[in-house]
Specification:
Layout lengths: L21 H8 L3 H4 L2 H18 L1
Helix pairs in contact: 1-3
Length: 57
């Protein structure tokens, strides 16, 4: 089941042009490589990104 923070992007069709915001990608890619393989840590990074966007909003 995909994270709500990613909005189902992980299950999009291969020919879809749907993307995630660059800032969200950056937040996840800034995690250590080992943490990027941990769904809970990736979801946490995504939720922190979302909360930051909401506050700036």
């Amino acid at each position: 089941m995909p994270s709500i923070a990613f909005g189902g992007v992980a299950e999009k069709p291969l020919d879809s042009h749907e993307t995630i915001p660059a800032e969200l990608h950056r937040a996840v890619m800034e995690l250590p490589e080992e943490d990027r393989r941990d769904r809970a840590k990736v979801n946490e990074a995504a939720l922190l990104f979302s909360a930051k966007q909401t506050r700036q909003g």
